[in-house]
Amino acid sequence: MSTATTSDLKWKEVYSLGFLNAAVAISWIAYHEYQPVLMTNLGITHLVDFMLIAKALVLVLIPPIAGLIADYILRKNGKYLIVFTVGIGATAMIFMVVASMISTAHLADMRTILPIMIVLWLISMNLFVSPANSMIEAFAPAQKLPIVMGFLFLVTELVYAIEPIVVALVLFFGDTLTFVVGGILISVSGYIFHRVSRDEVLQRKTQLMVADRVTGKQSLISYASILMVGLFLGVGKAFLLEFLPHHLANTFPEFGAYGGYVSFVILGLCAIGGFLISRTIAKRQLWKVITTSFVILVVGVFILLFAPSVEILIGGALVVAAGFTMLNISGLPFAIQNLSVRHVTYGVGIYIGASELLTGIFEYYL
Fold first, then answer.
1. With 0-12 CB in 10 A as exposed, 13-18 as middle and 19+ as buried, what is 177?
2. For residue 217, what are the contacts with CB-CB under 8 A and spacing of at least 6?
3. Are 157 and 268 in contact (CB under 8 A)?
4. pLDDT class for 205, splitting at 50, 70, 90?
5. How far apart (Å, rounded) are the C-alpha atoms in residues 221 and 251?
6. CA 231, CA 60: separation in Å to the nearest integer?
7. Which of 84, 86, 116, 204 shows a CA-CA span of 20 to 30 A to 14?
8. Model confidence over 48-90: pLDDT tens digits?
9. For residue 1, what pLDDT is reported?
10. CA distance 356 to 238
11. Global pTM?
């Protein structure tokens, strides 16, 4: 049984969460590949702006709302996985429903229902994100949480780094089979994570509730600091994934076709680098690591904005990537360490939602 002072990492639970995060990443890649295609085929491209705004709002707002509900249920009923289970089940069901609609319904019959189904899918996908990721405090002692994040970051970012391969598989499967596989992947990974981790989570949560790391009322300063860290993480993500390819194409047109590949390579380097430095970060004071990350990000963004050549632009992107990587490894452990167990899922939801804000803005305007 885990105790509050155990030095053991619960690798079986961490691996299952890594599998779930990989399934989520693959699902997002499939969504980004087929959503524009389906909207074009249905003749509803006039709703593209609406879908971008809806996606941004869902990504920012649903994780903290889901976290708030999960924390409330835990305090009232002692159950932690209800919101997670609902999110997993709804996501898998919507995948299957959309697959069925694509294979059997006439296109005209889907014009009204498809945008609704997409929004519902976005909501359900984000219902289980904050409950799942806040569970890492049950899998490792506080000082080793960066090591857990190093592994999760490695798995997730490597999936995004090989997006061209995933897209090729998605196109090979076709739309109907892709949604079926997506539903199976989410449901299987969610079931495995639930089955592997539920006893550990309940035991650990019970122990932590007895000896809460935050006494008294959770301070607004803690929430504000977590919000700030999430926003800075979002800066790194937005500049690497959205700004870099767009800026490269506009400023240096002869290299514009390679913008996406540059981002993928940098994400791969981030994944490997984050895994390698996670044990070092675990030995440092997290607030110092985060402060250093902020400085590196600001310097990198400045270089990106004013780079006079492609070489300097790529250099700036690598600087941003360094700050982004350090912040990914240290940000969530910092949030968890500064949150009461009774409010941890809500705080993690704030962190995750804040990290998506700038990406949503860039995706809409760029």
1. middle
2. none
3. yes
4. low
5. 41
6. 11
7. 86
8. 999 999 999 999 999 999 999 988 887 787 777 788 899 999 9
9. 35
10. 8
11. 0.91
| Mean confidence (pLDDT) of the chain | 88
Which tokens belong to 5? 């002072």
Give Cβ neighbours of residue 365 (< 8 Å, ≥ 6 apart): none
Rounded Cα–Cα distance for residues 356 and 76 (Å): 30
C-alpha atoms less than 13 angstroms from C-alpha of 91 in its C-beta half-sphere: 31
pLDDT score of 4: 38
Report pLDDT digits (tens) over 102-139. Answer: 777 666 677 888 889 889 999 999 999 888 888 888 88
Return the structure tokens found at 90: 């709804």
- The DSSP secondary-structure symbol of 128 reads T
Q: Is 254 exposed, middle or buried (0-12, 13-18, 19+ CB in 10 A)?
A: exposed
**Residue written as token pair 């690497």:** 240
Q: Residue 239 in contact with residue 249, Cβ under 8 Å?
A: no
Q: Residue 144: pLDDT band by 50, 70, 90 thresholds?
A: very high
Decide if 204 contacts 138 (C-beta within 8 A): yes
Q: List the end-to-end C-alpha distance of the chain, in Å, as a whole number.
A: 50
Residue recorded with tokens 């809500």: 346
- pLDDT at residue 145 tops 70: yes
Q: What is the DSSP letter of 5?
A: T
